[in-house]
Design brief:
Elements lengths: L14 H15 L5 E5 L2 H17 L6 E7 L1 H13 L3 H12 L3 E4 L2 H18 L3 H8 L1 E2 L14 H10 L24
Parallel strand pairs: 1-2, 2-3, 3-4
Helix pairs in contact: 1-2, 3-4, 3-5, 4-5, 5-6
Length: about 190
């Protein structure tokens, strides 16, 4: 039996957590509600979203879903770069195919986008893939990060009107796959 070492560091949940996250998202995608899934880390969040969408479609749920994968700097510096340093091109290939399987692919900054393309070039050189060209063509920059304050103290009538235009009801749900951690360089939560 071959048991490869893990990819990434302690922040990447193990398979039990992945099954739970993916299964719950399949349940949500089974609902006849237009859904946008924004994943803000390649591992495991984007994997969970793409696996859940594939499972929901294979099960016949036909979800009305739009997926957006947003790569952050640590996706490249921690996960992809560690794969390249260790010569684990198979894992890097999985990361790029998972990332590019989304409807939209974005980076948090120009620097992160450049690092994604540079990493993709390394994989291409070793594996004969075309990830760099796909990333150059498809990866957009999305900044600034989500500013939650824009969604506070909204006019209730405007909220109800916006929901009605989209066929939604108040007090629905939003799925946000992430972890709670101290921000880089921050001393507060």
């Amino acid at each position: 039996m071959e048991r490869p070492e893990a990819v990434g560091d302690y922040r990447v949940p193990d398979g039990r957590h992945l099954a739970g996250l993916t299964g719950r998202l399949v349940e949500l995608l089974a609902e006849p509600v237009p859904t946008t899934c924004l994943s803000m880390y390649l591992v495991p969040h984007t994997q969970v979203v793409t696996d859940a969408v594939a499972a929901a479609r294979a099960a016949g749920f036909a979800p009305d879903v739009h997926t957006v994968a947003k790569a952050v700097g640590s996706d490249v510096t921690n996960v992809i770069r560690s794969c390249l340093r260790e010569g684990r091109f198979g894992a890097a290939t999985v990361l790029f195919t998972t990332f590019l399987a989304n409807d939209e692919v974005v980076a948090v900054s120009d620097y992160t986008r450049d690092e994604i393309v540079a990493s993709a070039q390394e994989v291409d050189a070793h594996c004969g893939t075309t990830f760099a060209e796909q990333c150059r063509r498809r990866v957009a920059v999305s900044y600034p990060p989500i500013d939650a304050s824009a969604y506070l103290d909204l006019d209730p009538a405007a909220v109800d009107a916006a929901l009605a235009r989209r066929g939604l009801e108040r007090d629905g749900y939003v799925l946000f796959l992430s972890r709670v951690a101290r921000a880089k360089g921050s001393t507060t939560w």
